[in-house]
User: Fold these one by one.
Assistant:
Number 1:
Amino acid sequence: MADIADINMTTSSDDKHPPVVLQLLPSLVTGGVERGTVDVARTLAEEGWHSLVVSAGGPMVRELTRAGVNHIEMPAESKNPLVMHANVDKLARIIRDYHVDIVHARSRAPAWSALAACWRTDTSFVTTFHGTYDTSLPFKRTYNSVMARGQRVIAISDFIARHLVDKYSTSPDRITVIHRGVDFELFDPQKINPERLVRHSQEWRLVDGVPVIMLPGRLTDWKGQRVLLAALAKLPNRNFRCLLVGDDQGRTGYRRELERLIEKFELQSVVQLVGNCTDMPAAYMLADVVVSASTKPEAFGRVIVEAQAMGKSVIATDHGAPPELVLLGKTGFLVPPADPAALAAQLEHVLALGSSERETLAREVRSHVRGRFSKETMCSATLDVYRRVLTEKERNGSVVA
């Protein structure tokens, strides 16, 4: 890990140096944005490009180091205007010292600093639009708009691409849809050893032969845990176990509300809040059906793709990106958002599937996601965006405004 004060010239002044891409994000702790950044950084290095990542640091820096990627630590997570202003100077220096060709910003606060540094140094600016963000206030819309100001804007779903056009009047010609990619080396049913399954099964007190309904996601109201509990209360029998997998991240009030609902619906014997899970591939293998009940539109929906990669039936809400991620009735099922009755009916249908139907569905869902949502596809498409940006810069002689 490099510090801003220790930056040295790492490429020659020759114009023939390999392309240099700097990815910028708040930190490298955990999450989909962080995972995508590391995957792209590693691919750049493997392809012979010079790959840099700037962030406030975190456990995932180790993965960059192992891949031979330079990480430069700076307070990129800060929303303090003074810090953001100081970051402009730091980024401009990094751009010049490392002969950066493209800056790829993945979050709003550091993107504002990056945009100013790119203007100052005539460097190409790319963004990835990861979510709908809050647009309720005029200031918020302006703050969010930096993610739509890239010369090329990567949208993580068709839903987000439409959002960019509708809310920020972004030209479709500047938008490239690149779905998030899943690492199929990790999410592969054939690579889950029995010990991992036994450990989770014992920890969660699962019983052989009893179907498992799973909702993975942090405990926050819009992830739909309340909707699922209301749906479970409508099922005609209680021959199932339901696992709510996810940390409350300090939202203790919401957790207590869920516990009260479990008591209200008399679901204490079948529903368990299991907290955070560090081995989701094994966790998915224990599920018979995986639910994504989000009441707000998901920008992508990684849970849906991960569960399908493990051959699992998925029920998701019919808004946002989830309709892009399933083949309706073949690899997954959709229900209206915040509709417990519809969710209960779909749960009954999926839990009633016979073993041969489940095996057929498992083959179809694995084939579906492997063909569309691989990590390799995501990285390859991202590098194609970088190549187009470099070609435009060479053709025009400077960054396109």
Note: The CA atoms of residues 42 and 66 lie 9 Å apart.
Number 2:
Amino acid sequence: MPTVALFVTCLADQVYPDTGVSTVRLLEAAGCEVVFPEAQSCCGQPAINSGEPEAARRLAQRFVEVFEPFDAIVSPSGSCSGTVHHWYSRLVGESWRARAEAVAARTFELSQYLVDVLGAVDVGARVHETVTVHDACHGLRNLGVSGQPRALLRAAGATILEMSESETCCGFGGTFAVKHGEISGPLADDKLRHAAGTRAGYLVSTDGACLMHLAGRQRRTGVGPIPMHLADFLVRGLP
């Protein structure tokens, strides 16, 4: 039985704790033993986005220390997992680089780990709903996450109705959404209009930050299907 360390992320911890629980349930359904290192903290992405490399370096080194003992680290966020892969070797300093690269190689987004590492495309969930998929930028571009969530959805019985421009940014972009609302909001509205055009019941993604942004706009405009994290969508169909 593989032992997996859950990297829950700040957003799941503070805003969407049910997504963390859903992630554990899916991993357990796939035959994993899940442990939760309580000393974990932020991956450092907000500090990177805000031009604070020293703060980001301390957080990255902390992440390496906490998760180094584990053979696999899994997160319900392509954004945070992508930060570990894309930034850590450059952030941590020469004396930490080999350790950071080794930890990054064992850090995975949830659908990536289930499909690419375990080969667990069918985790036993059955959810016969119509969905459209938003390809979150960091997961897609830093980790290559695109086909994996779709494979899990199809195996669960979901019907995928692809939207136009599924790979276009939703506008969140971390602190970008706070600093540039006049750009961020219209990008989210465009994404929701594309999703609405499919007539799917749910807008599924692998990144809680994108979903938080899209859900906020969806509540205000009433446009688009219900945004839902892949883990939360699938876990409803577990026995």
Note: The longest strand covers residues 3-6.
Number 3:
Amino acid sequence: MTIGRDSNGRVVRKTVSAKTRAEVVGKLKKLQRQLDDGLPAPDMKMTVAQLINQWHDDVLRHQVAPSAALSYWTIAKHHIIPILGSKRIVNLTTVDIDRLLSSKLDSGLSVSTVQRIRGVLGQAIDQGIRWGCVNRNVARLSRSPKQQRREGRTLTYDQARRLLKELEGHRHEALYSLMLSTGLRRGEALGLKWQDFDEAARVVSVRRQLKREGGTLVTADTKTARSRRSVNLPRGLVALLLEHRKRQDEEQEVMDELWTETGFIFTTNFGTPVDPRNLNRDFAIICQRAGLDHWHPHELRHSAASLMLASGVKLQVVSEVLGHASIRMTADVYGHILAPDREAAADAMDQALWNGV
């Protein structure tokens, strides 16, 4: 079929093939409908593997952090390309995607991992549409596996106080107390610098996160745009931070030339950033000593949100403190804690409409 002319005026033709004349005619009619609708003619030869490789090399790695690009590529390399890589992108169907996702679930992969497989393939095909390689995204038409949201484990008031008692005098007392009282993510807390701390206003400004990338500790942008935020601090925490700064100044004086000035609030004995992995091990030991069994630093974030909501802090405020992308996310994760508030709302309407009868 002749589909037009290129920029040099040469005639551009598109060829289709099939096993029977009827199938060829059907393909030609479909192609003609697409052209009539103003859609570009798809690339009949590009495979799924070729699309993913080109998308990664020319687009993806320039749009996301290197660690994220590596994560996308790992998903594609291990779960998509081995099964669908040789298939031509124009012949890919929703059935192919559903079958892929089903096989991955049956193999024992978690729902979240399978959702990521579908997401990576969907983004690659989106780029294929922009390039004119294909006209619809069959990955988006597939059904994403549903995951039952599990309520995060949180410390009770009593457990939180026991933890703070055990932390007294510990090198990272201020760090863990900050995470427990404000819900900062581990990387956000470790990425704080003294310039981000306003003692007079009792505020820290979250502007970056510290993470490990390719075996090296680096600072990067916050997880989302809303993660860049200012967080008010309890007075008790401000006092801990001031004590921590005094102790850090003393360490710097003792270490002298061995000290590396980085500006971070939380550092090693030499002034360098704290490795997040070391923090995990250290926190587990502290929890054991406090008689709390094994806990992960990220659970301090869940605990902060739960304790704030249980204390009557409004859901919208908690969402802003946590830096969630939306209040809906906060409600989905911590909505179960709001049961007393919902009961109070029902009681209020009972009083207003039926006089408490």
Note: The two ends are 78 Å apart (CA to CA).
